[in-house]
Amino acid sequence: LKILLIQPPIEDFYLTEVRTYPLGILYLATMLKNHGIDVSVLDCLSPYKKKTIPLPKEFNYIKKYYTEKEVGPIKLFGQYYRFGLSDEDILGKVKENSPDFILITANFTAYFNVIANLAKKIKNKFQHTKIIIGGYHATVYKDNIEKKYSCFDYIVKGSNETNLLDILGYSFSSNFCFSKIIPDRSLINSQLYKMHGQNFSFLVATRGCLQNCSFCTVASMYGNNYVVREAESILQEMLDLYTNHQVRVFDFEDDNLSFNKEWFEKLLDAIIKIFPEKDIILYAMNGISIENLSFHLLKKMKEAGFRNLNISLVTAQDSLKEKLKRPFKNEKFEEIITLAKKLGYEITVYFIVGLPNQKKTNLQATIDYLSKFDILLAPSFYYPPPGTKEFDTLVENNVIDPNNWISFRSSVFPVETKDFSREEQVYFFSYIRLINFMSSLKMKYNLVEINYEKLELLSNITIDFPAIELCKEEEIGIAQAKEFLKNSVIKRIYSR
Ligand code: B12
Ligand code: SF4
User: Whose CA is nearest to atom 39 of ligand 1?
Assistant: First the structure.
């Protein structure tokens, strides 16, 4: 049996390129390989490649906010891209490989159209090849996809690998369950995945989360479960990556890595012991939930190789946090920020803009609150993820159309409410970029605070300077910051 596993291309205004390591299909490929199946992996997103493509008609409304003519450090998005291989390239690879089955990851609802178009073309050309999809989108919309599309032969729900093996005619052995598998990196070219110029890899050490935050999709995929891997198995994987693939940067993509603090501490101790050279860098880019962190754990994390702390705050409004079932309050957040700063961490805080029930004033309060701490603000513009309580409520209240799949992404501000218009969300997008730009100046020039006079010393160019669009990026930003501090207005700059 021959199987080709595909991480598909993505179409959007942007792509967080560093985080597209194809770990999900590596897990599946390894399990299949261990059953004696001939497997190949096609990661359509590596090496990185992008091509401008026409904007889908569904997004015509966004043209008034995004233009490729915008310049300066706070510019929003411009062109719409296809990231990764073209369908023709992929068809060529399928022809070369001539597999019996093709497995495609269908995690993203917003990008499902890309997969459906590709699958139709594959089916047209290679009638005998069977196509199987799985992942978050496939899980939530299995019945719907079955009704609408004939190009998929099987749709596998959830994280249950036994279903896949059943389809292929193999029986499942517990040796192949998530906690025991170490993904086989020889199936991809490890040299293609880099960060800070060094080889990089995703890892997952846990699966699921028991917290049940109302905006989160984890339970729709993994149920009410939290599974941790043995520290020994994680270390074996890290050592293989370190020794055989020269990986020095590891990113734990877990949903809630520190949920079980005793286990987490054991893992950190083991990493510290196995990598005494201190030449590895650890990340948890998917965000860390801080309820279980302490000075003691932060210290161990630092010793193990974490330098950045990516905290998922969601909102600084405690009452909203409670409604959403976030497990900690601002008091805890402040404690962790203070301790982390003492330890020299760089801190990024993720928060959501435009959550259902969030008023502009509450968001403004969150931003004002976070601006006090000299941290990087990472807004995530609310998109409704299918399989969550918030999504169902928005559908019930006729705020969103559940079939408008292509729109469930941040970049198009898909949810407008009477409390929070799209126009206002776009304003906040520029505003947060401006705040981050000012923080970056503060760090770069070692300033205690940012005010008009300090900015004037850095550059005397003002917003009405003729041909400002031709100035250096930083000069444009400083002019915008001065204008904001003086008149509370954000002026976006465009090239002619
Ligand atoms: C890493 C990640 C990304 C990466 C890209 C990942 C990639 N490889 O393409 C980045 C950071 C770019 C990204 C971006 C976005 N993401 Co994201 N991302 C994730 C994250 C955190 C981890 C994915 C991962 O690697 N998991 C670990 C591996 C081991 O698991 P896996 O890939 O899911 O694979 C397993 C299963 O899915 C299944 N499986 C996978 N493929 C197949 C195929 C078959 C045939 C079968 C049977 C099974 C199967 O088995 C695998 C092994 O167990 C998930 C959340 C999560 N915890 O999964 C969200 C998630 C996938 N992202 C999501 C979304 C929506 C987005 C955005 C579109 C949101 C936005 N801001 O608009 C953005 C796009 C931004 C952009 N244009 O860059 C949603 C998808 C929900 C949905 N229904 O759409 C998720 C689930 C998070 C969430 N909010 O709920 N993301
Ligand atoms: S703590 Fe994080 S992973 Fe767990 S339910 Fe809440 S948002 Fe999801």
Answer: 135
How far is ligand 1, taken at its centre, from the CA of residue 467, in Å?
A: 43
23 lines ligand 1 (CB under 6 A): yes
Beta strands in 68-142 (DSSP E): 70-71, 81-83, 101-105, 130-134
Show the tokens assigned to 93: 């690879």
β-pair type (226-228, 281-283): unpaired
Q: Looking at residue 175, what is its pLDDT?
A: 66
pLDDT < 70: residue spans in the chain:
175-176
* C-alpha to C-alpha distance for 309 and 274, rounded to whole angstroms: 22
Return the closest-CA partner of residue 206 out of 231, 241, 169: 231
Give the per-residue pLDDT at 356.
Answer: 86
Position 198 scores a pLDDT of 97
Q: Tell me the C-alpha distance between 390 and 46, whole Å.
A: 34
Distance 107 CA to ligand 1 centre (A): 5
Spacing, Cα 106 to ligand 1 middle (Å):
8
* Segment 128-141, tens digit of pLDDT: 999 999 999 999 99
Residues 6+ apart with CB under 8 A from 362: 315, 317, 320
Instruction: Please compute Rg for the chain using Cα positions.
Output: 24
Please tell me the pTM assigned to this model: 0.96
d(CA 237, ligand 2 centre) in Å: 25
Pocket of ligand 2 contains residue 211 by CB under 6 Å: yes
Q: Is the CB of 187 under 6 A from ligand 2?
A: no
- CA dist 45 and 15 (Å) reads 10
**Ligand 1 pocket member 219 (CB < 6 A):** no
Q: Which residues pair with 5 in a beta bridge?
A: 41, 103
Q: Are 222 and 208 in contact (CB under 8 A)?
A: yes
Query: 474: closest CA among 447, 438, 450?
Result: 438
The answer to whether the CB of 439 falls within 8 A of the CB of 431 is no
